[in-house]
Amino acid sequence: MRPSLMKQVPLFIVLLLFCIVNLTPVAWGFLTSIRQPVDAFAVPPKLIFEPTFQFHWEIWVDKGFWRFLINTAIVSIFAVTISVSIGSMAAYALSRLQSKAANGLLFSLLAMRTFPHILLAIPFFVIAQALDMIDTYPAMVMAIVALNQPFTIWLMRSFFAEVPGELYDSAVMDGCTPWQTFRRVALPIVKPGLWVTVLFSLLLAYNEFLLALVLTRQGTKTMPVAIAEYGAEDITYWSLSAAAAIGIMLPILIFMLFMQRHLVRGMAAGAVKG
Amino acid sequence: MASVTIRNVQKSYGALSVMKGVDIEIADGEFVILVGPSGCGKSTLLRMIAGLEDITDGDVLIGATVVNDIEPKARNIAMVFQNYALYPHMTVRENMAFALTLNRTDKAEIARRVDRAAEILSLGALLDRYPKQLSGGQRQRVAMGRAIVRDPQVFLFDEPLSNLDAKLRVQMRTEIKELHQRLKTTTIYVTHDQIEAMTMADRIVVMKEGGIEQIGTPLDLYDRPANLFVAGFIGSPGMNFFEGEAKGGQFVTTDGTVLPLPEGHQTLSGKIVYGIRPEHLTVDDVGVAIDVHVVEPTGPETQIFGKLGGQPIVVALREGPAVVPGETLSLTPRLDRIHLFDATSGRRLEVTTLGRAA
Ligand SMILES: Nc1ncnc2c1ncn2[C@@H]1O[C@H](COP(=O)(O)OP(=O)(O)O)[C@@H](O)[C@H]1O
Ligand SMILES: [Mg+2]
To answer: What whole-number distance in Å separates Cα of residue A12 and Cα of residue B73?
Structure first.
C-alpha cells in the first residue's frame, strides 16, 4: 500500500530538516576548506570569496597526509575482513544453536558493548606494550576487531535468524556438509545483510580514534588522530584540518555509492524475503 | 527404489515422549500417506526417516539396511518441504542441480537430469528464473523437480500442498499421483487433510498422539474403521455417532430413539457407540424421524443438518429431498453400513461374518 500524500509530505519535511541539520556541519567544513582562514572566520560570514583548493593540496601532498590515509585504509581493510568473516561464522553458529550457553554468550557480547571505550583502550595499550607491538598494524587491527566483534556478531545473527530452518534441512538432504550449508546456502542468502555489516564495521574501523591514539605513533598513525593533532592551536590551520576531514569522507562516500543497491535492500527488507 | 521398514520407533525430546513404538512396513514402490491431526508426530516420523531427527529407539530400514546411524545424504532420500525450501539465491536450474553439484556429478549428466525433470513437470520455461519470480504452484513443482533430479530410493513429502489455494491443491494432488505412477518411487507423504490421504494413497497410516490408530487402504479405513477416532477422522462430512445401549436386538440411544442393529449383532447387549456415515442414510417412510435444522445443497448432494432425538446428525442425500428447516425427515440407516464401537475402549465391534478382527 502506498502511504497517502497527506502522510508523505510531513514525513518528507521531517527528513529534510534532519538532513539539513546533519549536513550543515559537513557543508560548513567544506566551505572552510576552500577559503582562506581570515574569510572563514569573518563575522558576519563572508559569502563571496575566491574558492581555492590550495589547502587540499597542501594537506594531502605537501604535508604528506596521504600516508595516514593509507594507514587508515590498511587497518580498516584488515579489521573489516577479519571481523566480518569471524563475525559471520560465529553469528551463524549462534543463530543455529539454541542452547542456554549460546544465549549466555550472546548476552555477554552485548554486555561488552556497554563498556566505555577508554576502559578497554588502557588494557589494549598495556598488552600492546608488553608484546612490543605499539605502532604496528596488527595491534591496531586486533584491537579494532576485538572491539567490533560483538556488534558484527549481533548484526549478522539477526540476518541469519531470518533464514527459515527448512532451508537448512533441505541443504542437509541435498548433501551439504555443515561448512557447505554455511558457505553455499546461509551466507549467500544473507548477502545484503553482509554488506550492511561490512559498511558498519568499516565505519567503526575507519573512524576509530581512541584506540589509534593510544596504539599508534608516527609509523601507523591513522587519519582521525592525525587530523585531531593538527592545528588545534592556531586558526590558520583550520582550513587545512577541514580539507583533511572532507578528504577522508570521500572513500567512504564512494564505497557507499557502489554498495547502495545492496545496502538499501539489506537495511529495508531484511535479508531473506524474496 | 526400496522398501521402508519402521520397527518399534520411538522418539523423546528430553523427558517428553512424542512417539511410542511405531511399526510400519512400506513396500517398494508404494505410496503411503501418514495422516492425523496437527501435533500427532507425522513430521517427526518423516524427519526420522530422512535422518534430520535422531531416532530415540527402534530401527528405520531402507531396503534391508538399518539407516539409524547413516547420515541423510547417504540414505538416498529426497524430501519436499511444506514451504518448498527453495534456495532464494539460486535459479530454478541451480536449485534442481544443487544436490548433484555437491556430489560432483558430471556436468552433462546434471544437465540431462535437470532437463528431464523439467520436462516431466513442465518447468522448461522457468529454468532461469529465481524462486521469487514464481507462483506458489510453480515453486511447488520446482521443489518436486529438485527431488526427482536426484532419482532417490524414497520420496518424502511433508504437507506439500498446504500453502496452495483449494483449486491448485486439487490439481497438484493429481500431478503428484501421476508422477508416482510414472516414476514408481516409494513415497511417504504427510498430510493432515484426510481427503488428500483418501484420494492419493495406496495405503494410509492414521496417527494420533504419537501412535498408530490404523493402517489400511483408503477403502479399508472407510469401510471398516478400527476405532472411533479413525471412524470420525476419515470421511467428510464425518460419521454420525450415537451413544446408547444394545438390548433385545435393537439399539436404543440415550434419549430413547430406537435404531436397527445389523445382521450378526442382534445378540449384542450393553453400552455401545453406533456409527453411520451421512451418505449411508436413506429416506424411508418407516424410518426414524429427524428434526431438520439446516439444508445445504452442494451440487452433487444435499447435506442436511439436524437432530435425532437430542443428538446431532448429518445426512448427505443424492436426491435433494423437498424439506425445509423446521420440518422432520424420516430416515433409515443402511444395515450393511452400520459401524458399532465399544463405548469404553472405542474399538470396532466386528460383525463376526466379516471375519476381520478389530
Ligand atoms: N524440537 C522439539 N522439541 C520438543 N517437542 C517437539 C519438538 N518437535 C516436535 N515436538 C513435539 O512433537 C509432537 C509432534 O510434532 P510434529 O511431528 O511436528 O507433529 P505433526 O507434524 O503431526 O503436526 C508435537 O507435540 C510437538 O510439540
Ligand atoms: Mg508437521
So the answer is: 54
DSSP B94: H
- Out of B52, B79, B87, whose CB is closest to A185? B87
Integer Cα distance of B265 and B272 in angstroms: 12
A269 Cβ partners below 8 Å, 6+ apart? A192
Structural domain count, chain A: 1
Q: Taking CB atoms and an 8 Å limit, are A166 and B82 in contact across chains?
A: yes
Does B259 lie in the same domain as B200?
Answer: no
Cell of A72: 587508515
The cell for B65 is 539396511
Is residue B185 within 6 Å of ligand 1 at its C-beta? no
Number of domains within chain B: 2
Residue A162 in any domain: the answer is yes
What is the ipTM, given to two decimal places? 0.87
B79/A191 CB distance under 8 A: no
CA dihedral A160, A161, A165, A167 (to 10 degrees): -30
DSSP state of B265: -
Q: CB distance from A5 to chain B under 8 Å?
A: no
Closest residue (by CA) to atom 5 of ligand 1?
Answer: B13
Same structural domain, B211 and B276 = no
User: Are B203 and B310 within one domain?
Assistant: no
Per-residue cell: A107: 548476552
**pTM for the full predicted model:** 0.86
- Sheet of strand B31-35, all strands in order from the earlier edge strand to the far edge: B77-80, B154-158, B186-191, B31-35, B203-208, B211-216
Check which CATH number belongs to the domain holding B75 and give it.
Answer: 3.40.50.300
Contacts of A21 (CB under 8 A, 6+ apart): none
In this structure, what CATH number is given to the domain that contains residue A159? 1.10.3720.10
Q: What is the pLDDT of residues B69-125, one digit of tens each?
A: 999 999 999 999 999 999 999 999 999 999 999 999 999 999 999 999 999 999 999
What are φ and ψ of residue A192, in 5° steps? -55, -40
Question: How does pLDDT run across A28-56, given as a tens digit for each residue?
Answer: 888 888 888 777 777 777 777 788 888 88
Q: Which residues of A touch B99 (CB under 8 A)?
A: 173-175
Distance B212 CA to ligand 1 centre (A): 16
Backbone angle region of A135, left / alpha / beta, with phi > 0 → left and psi within -120 to 50 → alpha: left
B276 with B167, same domain: the answer is no
pLDDT digits (tens, 9 = 90+) for B268-313: 888 999 999 999 999 988 889 999 999 999 888 999 999 998 899 9
The reply to whether B358 falls in a domain is no
Radius of gyration of chain A (CA): 23
